[in-house]
Design goal:
With 699 residues, the protein is α/β, with parallel strands linked by helices. Helix content is 59%, strand content 11%. The N terminus is likely disordered.
């Protein structure tokens, strides 16, 4: 189904008296930023200060918060109901039992509208709740005749791919073999295969009418929902494999929730395990959750027993795995209970009573709702508390705040770190001004001496600068294998070679294992480049005794390796053509004859693919080395310019104080004002440090 960017409903959580709700923490961070701006104004800082400009840009990004949540799962796992319950609004029709090939994306919009993209790139816009609901039921639901075959897979692998052109029988046979495990209704194999063939025959001529993407825009009244984007993905089949469209979304998601019923499906089924191990999920460093749905109809003992079984199977993965799923990321919920909770919020007790009475008359009232209403004795507040307990959706919020917001928490922490640096910068400036104005008030000649001494210090720093710059350049970007950049790049490649040596070239799973290893090493190069860039900046800060006022003056480079899933598929297709090998065979008994044939060799295929991938990674390694060496050069240049700016500003400040015509009384008043302002900075810094420490503890 579709990915969702979501701002969470406010829930107060506490850890050592520290709130862990992202929304509230973000508001605290921004309030500290506003407080700092007031201090900046009182201190007379220029609005053109580069540090302030950098903070302002970062503050806008924090205010424009985005969070992307991907909802995945097998058919009949209750994805639409879950999404509606979480959003607090019934946007998706819940009687649509399975989506077709369409990825459904939900985001904020000024008006409720839907934009559908078809396989032939046509775009249709639908407006109005009734029209949108009708469109979704017609275009996002499967035909009744084909509910028991894997339509999304067939659409993507055959119907859309061939666009009405002739489909070779071999391709259909390959498809039938590939979807054997998706026969979740256990139809006889012949009947199952025939249904698939019938579907292909019926839909092939109308391929252009397949909807591949549905964007839904909704005017959420809650402002916190306006940063939300939800992706409801149809691309997970019964074997846990993901389609290409879903794979692209997975890697950009902030969190992924895989839904499956808590009972009624064999717990030993491999769908979630294989989903975790798929290439796209394997590369995703974000939070992964297993959400167990439809708990309200089960007894507490059944829920507890099933939950423990899931925890034993999936919640004991080692903490150093890329997925990092732990017990807290397996969550039992009931979406219908949450839907009722949301519905009843805007209703009075008499309305609720009449509504439940009507449901009973129509025999549509769930047992848990009737029981909760009876236990509440007509009290709306008690009913809502019980529904919230049954739904367990508060735990969803808590888990997402704890595991899914890591990148956002890191951004908040970095932002607070920059605020602390700004306070430190202001404190140094205030102390210098206090000292220099005091010198002027006591003895103007002492100020002249101070100016001369400062000039000498600045000259000495400038003289030593070139030596430090050369040392840093040689350390990181030295020629040959002498520099850290080249050494660490070679280390990553050596680890890759050792890893693929352990793979069995004859194994049918060797290609996918090699793909996963390759993507991880590409990620390693990206991480290695980012880490070395930060190390260079930190060393410049330490060695040159100056921190850049604006990090944007450094051109941080992001490695963009030409190694996407599409590129890998092209490599596989190319090498597969050359993966046949000759063999000899004999015919006849009395008069034998030798023949030479050609057949596909898994081992040769693996070897060619491995060689090609290794060459590609060598190229990426070289690109990373070139980028980093260029980065070192640009960085030391940026620091040189920063030092020059600092020197010029220092000279200007001293000259201003020297030429200031204030009287002794005026100088004393000014000094007292500066001291008072300085006294306010330290407590402000402590408050920022405490909040930053709390955020770092969450991360």
């Amino acid at each position: 189904m579709a990915m969702i960017y979501i701002l969470f409903r406010p829930i107060l959580l506490w850890r050592d008296n520290m709130r862990t709700n992202f929304k509230e923490i973000k508001e605290d961070v921004l309030s500290f930023y506003d407080e700092m701006l007031e201090t900046v104004k009182r201190c007379g800082y220029s609005e053109d200060d580069t540090s302030l400009k950098g903070l302002a840009a970062q503050a806008e990004k924090i205010k424009d918060d985005r969070f992307c949540l991907l909802i995945a799962g097998e058919a009949k796992s209750g994805k639409s109901t879950f999404i509606n319950a979480y959003l607090g609004t019934e946007i998706l029709p819940m009687d649509v039992r399975q989506c077709t090939s369409a990825v459904v994306e939900i985001a904020y919009g000024k008006e409720f509208c839907l934009r559908a993209t078809y396989a032939d790139d046509r775009v249709v816009t639908v407006q109005g709740e009734e029209a949108i609901n009708d469109f979704l039921k017609k275009n996002a639901a499967l035909d009744d005749d084909y509910r028991d075959i894997p339509v999304p897979t067939i659409n993507n692998e055959i119907i859309i791919k061939y666009k009405g052109k002739k489909i070779l029988e071999a391709e259909i046979v390959d498809l039938l073999e590939g979807v054997k495990r998706e026969n979740i209704h256990r139809l006889p194999e012949e009947q199952y295969n025939q249904k698939i063939r019938n579907y292909i025959k019926e839909k092939q001529a109308h391929w252009q009418d397949v909807v591949v993407k549905i964007d839904i825009f909704y005017p959420f009244e809650d402002k916190s929902m306006r940063g939300v984007r939800i992706i409801d993905s149809p691309g997970v089949n019964a074997a846990g494999k993901v389609g290409d469209a879903t794979a692209r979304y997975i890697e950009s998601a902030d969190a992924i929730m895989f839904l499956r019923p808590i009972t009624g499906v064999a717990i030993e089924a491999n769908s979630f395990k294989e989903f975790l191990e798929s290439k796209s999920v394997d590369r995703n460093k974000n939070a992964m959750f297993l959400v167990l749905t439809r708990t309200a109809s089960e007894s507490p003992d059944t829920i507890a027993r099933a939950y423990e079984e899931f925890v034993n199977m999936f919640g004991t993965m080692k903490s150093d795995t890329r997925h990092g799923i732990v017990k807290e990321q397996i969550i039992p919920v009931d979406s219908k209970a949450e839907l009722y909770f949301n519905k009843f919020r805007g209703m009075g007790t008499p309305e609720i009573r009449d509504y439940i009475k009507q449901l009973r008359a129509e025999q549509k009232a769930e047992a848990f709702l009737s029981l909760a209403w009876a236990d509440a004795c007509g009290d709306k507040e008690q009913l809502q508390e019980e529904l919230k307990r049954i739904s367990n959706f508060d735990v969803i919020d808590q888990a997402l705040n704890k595991f899914g917001r890591k990148a956002q928490y890191i951004a908040l922490s970095e932002f607070l770190g920059r605020i602390l640096k700004m306070y430190a910068k202001m404190a140094v400036s205030l102390r210098d001004k206090i000292e220099n104005y005091s010198l002027k008030a006591e003895d103007p000649h002492k100020l002249a001496v101070k100016i001369s001494e400062t000039q000498a210090e600045l000259t000495d720093i400038e003289n030593r600068l070139n030596q430090k710059v050369d040392e840093i350049t040689v350390k990181y970007a030295g020629s040959g294998n002498k520099g850290l950049i080249q050494q660490e790049a070679e280390k990553v490649m050596a680890e890759f070679r050792e890893e693929i040596k352990k793979l069995d070239a004859d194994s049918s799973g060797s290609i996918e294992a090699l793909e996963k290893a390759s993507f991880r090493k590409v990620d390693s190069f990206v991480e290695f480049q980012d880490r070395l860039q930060k190390n260079v900046v930190a060393e410049c800060n330490e060695a040159l005794k100056v921190a850049l006022s604006d990090k944007n003056t450094i051109e941080f480079t992001a490695l963009e390796p030409d190694f996407t899933p599409e590129v890998v598929e092209e490599i596989k297709a190319d090498v597969k053509k050359d993966s046949n090998e000759s063999y000899t065979y004999t015919t006849g008994t009395t008069f034998t004859k030798s023949h030479t044939g050609s057949r596909f060799s898994q081992k040769k295929y693996y070897q060619l693919f491995s060689n090609s991938v290794s060459e590609r990674l060598e190229s990426i390694k070289s690109q990373a080395v070139r980028d980093l060496r260029s980065f070192v050069s640009h960085t030391v240049t940026a620091y040189t310019k920063e030092l020059a700016r600092n020197a010029d500003q220092k000279r200007a400040d001293l000259a201003k104080i020297k030429n200031d015509k204030k009287t002794a009384d005026e100088l004393q008043t000014l000094i007292e004002e500066l001291k008072r302002e300085l006294s306010l900075i330290e407590p402000a810094q402590k408050r920022v440090e405490e909040l930053k420490g709390g955020i770092d503890g969450i991360v």
